[in-house]
Amino acid sequence: MFSPRFWNIALRTAHIAAMGVLLGGHAFDVPASRLTLALWCTVGTGLALGLLEAGLRLEWFHQGRGLTTLAKLILVLGVPWLWDYRLPILLAVVVLASVGSHMPARFRYYSVLYLRVIPSAGGPGAAQIAEELAQDGNAERSQ
Question: How confident is the model at residue 120, as a pLDDT?
Answer without folding.
Answer: 77
